[in-house]
Amino acid sequence: MSGLSTHVLDAVSGAPATGVPVTLQDASGTELSSAVTDSDGRIGQVNPYPLIPGIYHLVFDTGDWFADNDIDGFYPEIDICFEVTDPDRHYHVPVLLSPYSYSTYRGS
Question: Domain named Transthyretin/hydroxyisourate hydrolase: which ranges (predicted)?
Answer without folding.
Answer: 4-107
